[in-house]
């Protein structure tokens, strides 16, 4: 009887030690993960806040001749918000309003393009930041769709470099790549932007590399019957191939087409 109790006690002790060892490791891992999440979130919030403070001064220097409408107040609100969730919501509202010609003109007139490019440059690859990037790209696309704002946007020479950097960083995010490809395609149709892009040999080499990588991915997605991904990749590859054709086309041919 005594031996049975001893064996039972040993079994209970062994089970308890095993449980304690497993759970202590799990608790330590959970604690470490929470600390990492808190630290990363704090770094992102601090970075966004400091960036927003830097460009608030640009908004305050807006031309006083223009009346303060919904778009301007929304843009000011975006740049003064410290909460990223509210900031994202304000950018989304501005994106929805940018389908109107009147609002696009206000955004362009109030130096909104520089602000949008700066916001895009500060974002990382987290899902909330990528949502902000998509809204900013939608606004830029809408600005380029209207003749009255197209010329103002084309005066900004930073669009091309920012779009190319997005293509390198977010090459696996096909929704973003489609938007970026459309904007790059429009920029290449402008002589000044085309000349600047052609002169940058490293950027041209990156473009060719990106096309080749995306073509390989397209073959894989078709082989695996991934319809949505293959459709998006086809659009991206088509846009970038057209961009390369436009950039490699001699200026004489461009002039013939215009005439």
Secondary structure: elements and pairs:
Layout: H1 2-60, H2 70-80, H3 84-97, H4 101-109, H5 112-122, H6 127-145, H7 147-154, H8 159-169, H9 174-188, H10 191-199, H11 201-223, H12 227-248, H13 251-258
Helix pairs in contact: 1-2, 1-5, 2-3, 3-6, 4-7, 5-6, 6-7, 6-9, 8-9, 9-12, 11-12
What does this structure look like?
With 259 residues, the chain is mostly helical. The chain is built from 13 helices and no strands. Helix 6 packs across helix 7 and helix 9 runs parallel beside helix 12. It is elongated, with a radius of gyration of 26 Å. The termini are far apart. About 4% of the residues have low confidence.
Please name the defining characteristics of this protein.
single chain, 259 residues, mainly alpha, 13 helices, 85% helix, 0% strand, elongated
């Amino acid at each position: 009887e005594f031996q049975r109790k001893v064996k039972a006690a040993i079994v209970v002790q062994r089970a308890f030690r095993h449980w304690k060892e497993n759970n202590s490791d799990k608790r330590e891992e959970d604690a470490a993960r929470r600390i990492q999440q808190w630290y990363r979130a704090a770094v992102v919030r601090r970075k966004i806040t400091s960036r927003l403070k830097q460009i608030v001064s640009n908004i305050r220097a807006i031309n006083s001749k223009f009346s303060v409408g919904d778009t301007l107040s929304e843009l000011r609100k975006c740049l003064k918000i410290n909460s990223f969730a509210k900031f994202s919501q304000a950018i989304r509202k501005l994106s929805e309003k940018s389908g109107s010609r009147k609002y696009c003109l206000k955004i362009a007139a109030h130096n909104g393009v520089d602000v949008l490019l700066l916001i895009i440059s500060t974002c990382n690859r987290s899902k909330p930041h990528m949502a902000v990037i998509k809204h900013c790209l939608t606004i830029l696309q809408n600005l380029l769709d209207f003749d009255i704002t197209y010329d103002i946007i084309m005066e900004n020479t930073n669009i091309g470099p920012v779009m190319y950097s997005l293509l390198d960083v977010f090459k696996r995010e096909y929704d973003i790549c489609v938007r970026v490809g459309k904007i790059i395609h429009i920029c290449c149709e402008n002589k000044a932007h085309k000349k600047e892009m052609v002169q940058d040999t490293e950027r041209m080499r990156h473009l060719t590399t990106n096309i080749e990588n995306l073509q390989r991915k397209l073959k894989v997605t078709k082989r695996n019957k991934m319809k949505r991904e293959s459709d998006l990749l086809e659009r991206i590859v088509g846009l970038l191939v057209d961009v390369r054709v436009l950039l490699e086309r001699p200026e004489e041919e461009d002039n013939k087409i215009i005439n």
